[in-house]
Amino acid sequence: MPPLNGKIVTVVLFIAVLLGVLYCYISQSYRVVLSFEERFKASDKEARPPQEVVVTLSRHELHLVSQDYLRYKQPSIVQGRTDVVTVTPWLAPVVWEGTFNPGLLDTIYRPKNITVAVTVFAVGKYIMFLKNFLETAEQHFFVGFRVHFYVFTDRPNEVPQIKMAAGRQVTVMSVPSSNRWQEISARRMEIIQTLIEQKLENYCDYIFCLDVDSKFHGRWGTESLGGLVAVIHPGYYRDERSRFPYERRPASRAYVAHGEGDFYYCGGAFGGLLQEVHLLARTCRENFEADAKVGIEAAWQEESHLNRYMWINKPSKVLSPEYLWQDFKSRNSEVQIIRFSGVVKNYADIRPN
Ligand SMILES: *[C@@H]1O[C@H](CO)[C@@H](O)[C@H](O)[C@H]1NC(C)=O
User: What residues sit in the active site (predicted)?
Assistant: First the structure.
């Protein structure tokens, strides 16, 4: 019967096509697996330091769990800050007062039992700022979270005793004194890199590197956490980028050409996940040393190298100038709260040169 024959032919053809598609799919994925394995073998041969392999991202950054009992103000999708930009062109949040719910964020991060490391350099007379820095940090910096301050100083005997809340502590690390503040600044990246490798791995989750000649005035907490975190410099945030004090000599590894650069970031505050800050510190140190070999010192030392790094490696979170203001600067209207601020000082009194 012709109609039945037709049906059988159709079914056979259909199965044949199905098998064909299946074969193509399997051989395709086989090829993908092969090439992936080849690539894996190739990268195996390169000597890589183990620090880069450790990835704990998922525990901290990628999975944000709230609590179902939590009640809080409804977030709006159409109303918010209109006087400032709250997201970068690469879609990283810019943290301003009014863009986040502190209670919600703390609830999300508390069960993660995170430990935040802080590095602070109190070399020479800069030790005079340490007491105020630590005391105000106890009042405002990650209150209720585990924080470990690492104080690098050439005057360990002068480190003040500060009463710390539970889960928070200070470790004093000795460093040699230096005759030039530029050198102190330069060695910071190397010291941060070494600290992460030797002490912090498998212990801390995040790290912030902060200037000691500053103090806290308002909350600085979980809203600042991210992979790579940069702070907008308070002195240039309203300026054209042609006015940013980037390193402009092409011979320097910190070079940023005219027409390049997003923002001008502070050298006095940066941070993020351990692995990210490790890579930043290592890269800036290598670039700094390469510059030194050809006799170049970048315009603003490590700040210049940091700005070059952040131009290529975009920060995943940007903190507004609320997170590093300067006491001598009058507050602009968009700055609704000052959280951390550089204290007024006389450089002639404290810098060795
Ligand atoms: C939190 O972390 C610290 C340090 O890693 C650890 O000693 C402590 O047991 C942890 N607490 C909980 C509840 O997991």
Answer: 303
Chain segment 44-82, per-residue pLDDT in tens:
333 344 444 344 444 556 789 998 889 999 999 999 999
Which helix or strand (DSSP H or E) is residue 278 part of? helix 274-293
pLDDT at 21: 55
> Which residue's CA is the nearest one to ligand 1's atom 2?
113
Class at the top of the CATH hierarchy for domain 7-68+84-350: alpha beta
User: How far apart are the C-alpha atoms of 226 and 205, rounded to whole Å?
Assistant: 11
pTM for the whole thing?
A: 0.82
Please check the confidence at residue 33 and state whether its pLDDT lies above 50: no
Q: What pLDDT score does 234 carry?
A: 97
**Is residue 257 annotated as involved in ligand binding?**
no
| Ligand 1 center to 316 CA (angstroms) | 27
- 303 as an active site residue: the answer is yes
Q: What residue ranges do the domains of the chain occupy?
A: 7-68+84-350
The pair of three-digit structure tokens given for residue 215, joined into one six-digit string? 């103090």
Q: Which residues line ligand 1 (CB under 6 A)?
A: 113, 115
Helix and strand tally (H, E) in the chain? 8, 11
Consult the annotation and say whether 12 binds a ligand: no
